[in-house]
Design brief:
188 residues, mainly beta, SH3 type barrels, OB fold (Dihydrolipoamide Acetyltransferase, E2P), 3 domains, six-stranded antiparallel beta sheet, five-stranded antiparallel beta sheet, Transl_elong_P/YeiP_cen
Length: 188
């Protein structure tokens, strides 16, 4: 669907030079002299890189509608993760590269939104948080109560994360998957 520059909004998906980009930021500029334009920051949905791009008022942009499906992780298979559609139970492979940094913190059956374009998966939106049990933690140093001391622990999925020294093996913790940080201990 073609649209003018005044219709571009954050979150839209555009096709630019044959590639799909999500609009991260858009700023409409109407200078006193010359024609209006829009400054954008775009994120490539395949390569996960960002570009800044300016479009003139006369340019027509192509908006893309993506199919979004709720899916859960079934298992890992080589370079792919096999997801299952929660509505029709269809299983589809999705490249691990969409989740590589948070993969060590995801359990099977974790629900996510998978975006498709022309039947192919092009993006995965994971949950913001994971609740996981600590399977290995060294004892904290006695007397260090400053609150800023950290230690490395291993969680049930095999991922490692820095946590405050009071966290011990068997604790259940909440991890922010957006920046891979410890949030809090959770009651079982």
């Amino acid at each position: 669907m073609n649209l003018g520059i005044t219709e571009v909004k954050k979150g839209m998906v555009l096709k630019v030079e044959g590639e799909l980009y999500s609009v991260v930021r858009s700023e409409f500029v109407n200078p006193g002299k010359g024609s209006a334009f829009i400054r954008t920051k775009l994120k490539n949905l395949v390569r996960n890189s960002s570009i800044e791009r300016t479009f003139k008022a006369a340019e027509k942009l192509e908006s893309v509608d993506l199919e979004k499906r709720q899916m859960t992780i079934c298992y890992s298979d080589g370079d792919d993760i096999i997801f299952m559609d929660t509505n029709d139970f269809e299983q589809l492979p999705v490249s691990k590269e969409y989740l590589e940094d948070i993969l060590p913190f995801l359990k099977e059956e974790t629900a996510m939104e998978v975006s498709f374009y022309e039947g192919k998966p092009i993006g995965v939106i994971p949950p913001n948080f994971a609740i996981l049990e600590v399977t290995y933690a060294e004892e904290g140093l006695k007397g260090d109560t400053s609150g800023t001391a950290l230690k490395r622990v291993t969680v049930e999925t095999g991922g490692e994360i820095n946590v405050p020294i009071f966290v011990k093996q068997g604790d259940v913790i909440k991890i922010d998957l957006r920046d891979l940080t410890y949030v809090e201990r959770v009651n079982k």
